[in-house]
Design a protein that fits this description.
Elements (H helix, E strand, L loop, with lengths): L1 E5 L2 H8 L7 E5 L3 H8 L4 E4 L3 E2 L9 H11 L4 E5 L16 H22 L4 E4 L17 H11 L2 E5 H11 L3 H6 L6 E6 L1 E4 L5 E5 L3 H15 L8 E4 L6 H4 L4 H15 L1
Parallel strand pairs: 1-2, 1-11, 2-3, 4-5, 5-6, 6-7, 7-8, 8-11
Antiparallel strand pairs: 9-10
Helix pairs in contact: 4-5
């Protein structure tokens, strides 16, 4: 299992100065220039901004994705399994109606079809997203382990486990995060994302934050389960802290990276 860290200028500097050791950078798909810069310091792979379930796959530039994947030797094409509330105005956010559930499942599978046709189901993985509950943007059904398992069983694609997403979902919905994660299809685990979560001044949780003791406890538990052989070992564990652009720059601290990356490296290795 390799260790990757979100590409940022701060992370790049720490690697060049031999302050931290990592295997590779995790890069977004929106800037080839960024990827070219990252490759000069460490190998990198691409995380794609693809959603399965919102009927937008017809707008995807597949040629660009194929080129980035080939250039970086990115082994998997990731998609985010989504069911946006706005796309289901006739449903309750917490619906358990089998007809409604099947509509959500069918929408995800429909969007997965072109991705699997182009890259092969064995090279595609779905990431668990965040459901914050009523009056928010995501239907609860799409984060339910049995529904994700059904989609993966029917399609043959794998799982990208984001521990912060699972943690935020569990806190918002009143679930036990370890029980929740344990019910996911971890025999198909392909990639792991780890980062901290913290509330803003209004109490709203955000991910891609520095790790807290609670975050470390969850990360250690997940990695121990993998190393003990209970779950499939993913090809990479990515520390999703830091990044580029206005979304990430305000939460990219060189001191945090210098302190926390070696801890995660030791856990993974």
């Amino acid at each position: 299992m390799k260790l990757a860290v979100n590409y940022s200028l701060e992370t790049e500097k720490l690697v060049k100065d031999s302050v931290i050791d990592i295997d590779m950078f995790k890069c977004p798909d929106f800037s080839k220039e960024l990827i070219d810069n990252a490759k000069q310091t460490k190998p990198c792979y691409v995380h794609f901004a693809l959603n399965a379930g919102d009927n937008q796959m017809n707008k995807v530039n597949w040629t660009a994705i194929e080129a980035l994947r080939e250039e970086t030797n990115t082994p998997f094409v990731n998609v985010h399994a989504v069911a946006f509330v706005k796309d289901y105005p006739d449903m309750d956010t917490f619906t358990s109606n089998p007809v409604h559930i099947n509509r959500i499942i069918d929408a995800v599978i429909k969007d997965l079809a072109p991705v699997m046709d182009k890259f092969g189901a064995e090279n595609v993985m779905m990431e668990n997203v965040i459901c914050r509950g009523e009056n928010e943007n995501m239907m609860r059904a799409i984060i339910e382990p049995e529904i994700l398992s059904e989609i993966m069983q029917e399609t043959g694609c794998g799982l990208l486990l984001d521990t912060a997403h699972a943690q935020m979902t569990s806190k918002c919905l009143g679930l036990d995060v370890k029980q929740y994660i344990s019910q996911l299809p971890l025999d198909q685990l392909k990639e792991l994302h780890i980062t901290g979560i913290q509330p803003d001044n209004k109490g709203r949780l955000h991910d891609s934050m520095p790790m807290t003791d609670e975050d470390w406890d969850l990360a250690k538990w997940v990695i121990q389960r993998i190393k003990a052989g209970y779950w499939q070992e993913p090809w990479v564990a990515a520390f999703e802290y830091g990044g580029v652009g206005p979304i990430f720059e305000w939460r990219t601290d060189e001191e945090v990276l210098a302190k926390q990356t070696p801890i995660l490296y030791e856990l993974v290795k």
